[in-house]
Amino acid sequence: MSAMPQPNMSEARANATFDALLWTLSRPGLPRSLPEPGEAPIIEALLDRECRVHAAEPTLIPAIMRTGAEIAEIDRADHVFLGAMTAAADLAHLALGSDLYPDDGATVVVRARFGDGQRLRLTGPGVDGMLTLDVGGLPEGFWQARAERMRYPMGFDLFLIEADRVVGIPRSTQVEVL
Which pTM value belongs to this model? Predict the structure, then answer.
């Protein structure tokens, strides 16, 4: 009988984070808990030396560098960490993929607040009919800028984080500001 290898704490944390991220993309608008607050567990779970990453906040660079990922300009990045955004203009520079390779669209991580701010109606795959969600902490025009960039299957996937909670909004989800 052979023994199964046991993941160490770092691997277990990365696995739990990856599971939470996939769960939120398959159930847009529903929050899930991360093993730790902030971007660090997401960086650990998603990045490796084959990734190009843009970080708006320099404090994230050391964690990104530990993964071996390449630091890139926003328009070339596979993963974009925008932190606490102050202007929606950065969305205009994101990689969107193509009709043949929609998976080349960026994965974007932004800090937000849940339970206050703009009321949103989400519809699309993974949403049971429709779902409403209150999201604050995003710059004026964020959702309009997102809508202007989406050309499904092209677009970008979005993770909103607040402390240790994450909400996923994939490119296939329609968001209406109420």
Answer: 0.93
